[in-house]
Fold this sequence. Notes:
Shape: globular
Largest sheet: 8 strands, parallel, barrel
Helix content: 25-40%
Order of helices and strands: EEHHHEHHEHHEHHEHHEHEEHEHEHEH
Strand content: 15-25%
Strand order of the largest sheet: 3-4-5-6-7-8-10-11
Bound molecules: (3S,4R)-3-hydroxy-2-oxopiperidin-4-yl beta-D-xylopyranoside
Distance between the termini: 17 Å
Radius of gyration: 21 Å
Amino acid sequence: MRTQWFGTRAPSRAVAHCAVGMGVLPVVFAAAVLPAAAADTRSPGNPPVQAQEDQSYGQAKKNGLRTVVPDDFYIGTAAAGGGHHLNAGYPDPFTYDKTYRKILSAEFNSVSPENQMKWDFIHPEPGVYNFGPADAIVDFAEANGQAVRGHTLLWHSQLAPWVTQGDYTDAELRQILKDHIQTVVGHYKGRIQQWDVANEIFSDPWNGPIALRQENPFIQRLGPGIIADAFHWAHEADPEAKLFLNDYAVEDMGGKSDYYYELAKQLLADGVPLHGFAFQAHLDLQYPFPSTLDDNMKRFEELGLETAITELDVRFTLPESGVPTAEQLAEQADTYQGVLEACLSVEDCNSFTIWGFNDKYSWVPGFFPSQGAATVMFEDYERKPAYYALRETLAQASQD
Ligand code: XIL
């Protein structure tokens, strides 16, 4: 039985959301054009935003998630920047938001670049590599005793236009991928704990029969053998890094995860340097909890693979007020806790990453209309029940 986390916080203190265009975007985007007094939509009695942030950092240093983490376990987050942040109307969070950086360093002992190592960001033109922003994350992580998960190499999305729109022969396309993987992985050699080598390479179960994803131009043009090649190239460039398959909608047994299970068996039988299978875990409260997650992890581990949770967030449809209810927050906490417990219950799941830690920077409202509040902290870094659920579960695991 998982603990219910109703917490002590009145949900009315959440920052309200307003609808902007297609999706629902945090009201903070509007704050830039409103007078300061009008921008703070929180209830009377809240501390001013700066005071709340200072308090959050103080708390993080004293009793943040990483302070209670079991030995050899990594509690991570995406480091916010690039992607949807580019159009969000605030400066790059990882680069410029000092409070964000401080809390990131105090709460977590692992980080994943949210977008900064993706192809369109790091390799925007042929032969042009933009390593600066990802270097900054890796340097920051090392300075703060944090591991780094590399994300990602072979993916159909956020590819640079020169790759998708170029007129290449198959041999040229293969060489382009090889150069990319070896240059990026080689650049960070010895500094990346785990790489998501292949991301989302199977199609969605709700779009018909599951198959290798044909939107991936490398798979579509070069065939399934390119998956093994990608792992071999990454391994040559950094023999120490653990190399992973990574996807969403694979948490429960059956469906897409069965296809990964068969693929993993085949890759291992062929001597491919595959070291792990990762569950993104972008969950939504309108669907049941993935109750077979622990068994699913176990079967991958029985193949000799590590497992990891790499992008956990738990979204839900916000009430019209934009303010989550106490029940929603409790259910969300329960879900975070359940996923962490599954990871802790197996031998080789040592890396547990949430996809951002405060609602202000979450990708969810921009991608899932009417949904939000998916992370463990409100926009002002005040901790939600989900935060406490994670911390208590980690603390308990440290004692056991
Ligand atoms: C998301 C980022 O969070 C956004 O900033 C970006 O605009 C789109 O991509 N699966 C993945 C992640 O593997 O890289 C995605 O990240 C979320 C889904």
